[in-house]
Write a structure and sequence with these properties.
heterodimer, A: 101 residues, alpha/beta, Transcription Regulator spoIIAA, five-stranded mixed sheet, globular, B: Phosphatase 2c, domain 1, five-stranded parallel sheet
Chain lengths: 101, 586
């Protein structure tokens, strides 16, 4: 899984590429931790455009991020998911926790 | 076993005695033990008796040459590698290739240079130590693996007994559970409430394998405990959510479906958080409706944000079948698309009779997997939703002396005997409590407090209490129109409306009053349930109950009447009074 972090003002975007599963665990955490620490960012956007596959451990990782972000007073947005990934987010009803664009 | 640099046992094979003596001296100087052989045959004899750590082999020998001897030694030793150094003469370098091909590892040229020999012996000694270390580790790994498998088998058996899957013997439930590894992270449970409603739970823990299975097991305990007390599936979901959230780490959750089947009223209720849709099929196997996941899986939301909203469907007089599956089942049917996967399963349902659908689906999945193991746990459940034969709903025959006329004369006391009160209790439920309280467990609890000589009376008592309570709430406080309950669609609207009005109930109280008394005829119970509403037309209700139709809502009052010694309304319908003798009539 390739992860790239870009920023624009108060929004930090974490771009994910590849399979979002347990193997991405370490790199995902390494990507969002510094973003959460930085006070200037109020919004964390997870760009899922290039994520072909997501499983339940990925949902778990997003939940951890959500918990941490809430504690730091930041919003988390999930964006540009393809139809397969959207279906997974839909069944899990993640729209009740995250803004999904 | 060589443990240090100077501890090898080396076999020298050379037909020249002086050469053997020279090499022996050199090796002894290095600190090694030496064995000698003058021919290939002799070397093999020694080799078989005591395998050396290393062999120095002369190429040119009469009889069995060096190459053949080495080949034979390798064959004897099989997977046990040991270093072999060939001894060749100058000008015989092509022997070196043949030697290595025969199984040798290195060579020295005659006349032998001590430093060269020592360097090569030491180097190959290192290789030997390395090889033996690897072997030892392999052996340990294998032993560990065997032990681990044995442990897993034992744990699997134990877990199987805890899960008591073989105890799910309800005739309406058929299921298929297939673990991706030894342990399944999918869990199935089924049980009946005290009023005989069937509850089913499908729980899919994140991931699969032992961790997933362990994560989901405590849920089973809560399920059975609460079902036995008659809690609603919404309450079960809330409690299980709270429990899971407490002990599971934040990144783990349990996708769950909870189903309640009430065959008496032809109703299915579903709470689905994170699972694929539960699909209701009619007797032809066509889809009637879907129960989509409209909640987050259990273990994520904190109790204040948790939603226990349940979806209902009234199937009335149309028997049907409910299909529940975990996403592992759908993935196996089609790994790319959930819609396709589900449609494959539904296709099987359409082409098979209800009794054969499960085996048909299992066969289809086997075909799709093509003998390869599934990537995720598979769970399939089919629940039969039959229509209860209303003639079986026995309304016990009533003696002619007690008739509806009694209700018109509330002052007339039918119990023409002396009454002595033993105890009295009152329970007052205000609007906030009415909005939240799960009434079934509460009433069951009350019933269980009363000592009954005849335990079969507890069911009857519960029926009376719940019927009168629901009337007080639905008609007295919520002012619902019970004529809506005449058809299945109306039922849905009725319950939707009920849910809305209950949420908005600002004021109103229901009082439950019980009085235990004793008479010469035996013990009895007076029940009064009253509400602060504006009353209702109980005449209309009774008129409906009089009709010999299959109207289920009217049946409730008829039942109450048949079970009591005396039953009447007072205060414009705000009060219902029941007297009940606690000894079964003969």
């Amino acid at each position: 899984m390739d992860i790239k972090v870009t920023t624009a003002g108060s929004v930090a975007t974490i771009g994910m590429k590849g399979r979002f599963d347990f193997s991405a665990h370490r790199s995902f955490k390494d990507a969002y931790e510094p973003v959460l620490k930085e006070k200037a960012f109020t919004t964390v956007e997870i760009n899922l455009a290039e994520v072909a596959y997501m499983d339940s451990s990925a949902l778990g990782m997003l939940l951890l991020l959500h918990e941490r972000a809430q504690a730091d007073g930041k919003e988390v947005i999930l964006s540009r998911a393809n139809s397969t990934v959207l279906q997974i987010l839909d069944i899990a009803n993640f729209k009740k926790l995250f803004t999904i664009r | 076993m060589p443990t240090s640099k100077t501890d090898l046992t080396i076999l020298i094979v050379d037909d020249s005695r002086p050469d053997r003596a020279l090499m022996t001296a050199m090796l002894a100087k290095m600190g090694h033990e030496v064995m000698q052989a003058g021919t290939g045959e002799e070397a093999l004899e020694i080799f078989l008796e005591q395998m050396p750590d290393m062999v120095l082999m002369d190429v040119l020998m009469p009889g069995m040459g060096g190459f053949d001897t080495v080949r034979e030694m390798r064959r004897i030793a099989r997977n046990e590698w040991f270093p072999i150094i060939f001894i060749t003469g100058l000008g015989h370098e092509d022997d070196i290739v043949r030697g290595i091909e025969a199984g040798g590892d290195d060579y020295v040229l005659k006349p032998i240079n001590y430093k060269m020999l020592k360097a090569k012996v030491d180097s190959l000694h290192q290789h030997l130590l390395f090889f033996r270390r690897m072997e030892e580790q392999s052996k340990l790994l294998l032993e560990n693996q065997i032990r681990s498998e044995e442990e897993q088998q034992a744990a699997h058996e134990f877990m199987g007994r805890l899960l008591a899957l073989d105890k799910i013997k309800d005739p309406l439930v058929k299921f298929h559970l297939q673990a991706a590894e030894i342990f399944s992270g999918d869990l199935i449970a089924a049980a009946r409430t005290p009023i005989d409603n069937l509850y089913i739970m499908l729980a899919d823990s994140t991931g699969h394998g032992l961790t997933a299975a362990l994560a989901v097991m405590p849920v089973l305990q809560s399920f059975h405990a609460m079902v036995s007390k008659g809690f609603s599936i919404g309450a079960l979901a809330a409690e299980i959510n709270r429990k899971i959230r407490e002990y599971l780490p934040a990144n783990r959750f349990v996708a769950t479906i909870l189903v309640e089947l009430d065959t008496k009223n032809g109703r299915i209720s579903v709470w689905n958080g994170g699972c694929p849709p539960a699909v209701l099929l009619n007797s032809d196997g066509a889809v009637v409706c879907h129960f989509h996941s409209n909640h987050l899986p259990l273990g994520i939301l904190n109790p204040t944000h948790f939603s226990d909203e349940v979806a209902h469907y009234h199937f009335g007089n149309n028997p049907c079948q409910l299909l529940l599956c975990s996403d592992g089942a759908i993935d196996s049917a089609d790994p790319g698309s959930m819609e396709l996967g589900l449609s494959h399963l539904l296709q099987v349902a359409r082409s098979e009779k209800s009794g054969k659908r499960l085996s048909g689906m299992v066969r289809m999945l086997e075909q799709k997997l093509e003998g390869k193991p599934a990537l995720d746990d598979i769970a399939l459940i089919l629940v039969d939703c039959p229509v209860e034969d209303s003639s079986q709903l026995s309304v016990p025959a009533k003696p002619e002396t007690i008739s509806y006329e009694a209700a018109l004369n509330p002052e007339q006391d039918m119990l023409q005997v002396e009454v002595q009160t033993e105890w009295e209790m009152s329970l007052n439920l205000t609007a906030p409590q009415l909005r939240q309280t799960d009434i079934v467990p509460l009433l069951l609890h009350i019933v269980n407090q009363i000592e009954l000589e005849d335990p079969s009376l507890s069911g009857k008592l519960f029926l009376i209490l719940s019927e009168l309570f629901n009337n007080a709430l639905d008609h007295g406080l919520l002012k619902l129109d019970s004529s809506l309950k005449n058809d299945p669609e109306g039922m849905d609207r009725y319950y939707e409306e009920r849910s809305v009005r209950l949420k908005e109930l600002g004021q109103g109280e229901i009082k439950i009053n019980l009085q235990k008394f004793s008479t010469a005829n035996g013990p009895g119970l007076n029940i009064v349930i009253s509400d602060t509403g504006s009353g209702f037309d109980y005449q209309e209700l009774k008129a409906a109950a009089l009709e010999p139709s299959t109207r289920r809502h009217g049946r409730g009052i008829a039942l109450v009447e048949s079970l009591s010694s005396q039953f009447y309304y007072a205060d414009s319908g705000r009060e219902s009074h029941v007297s009940l003798l606690l000894k079964s009539a003969n």
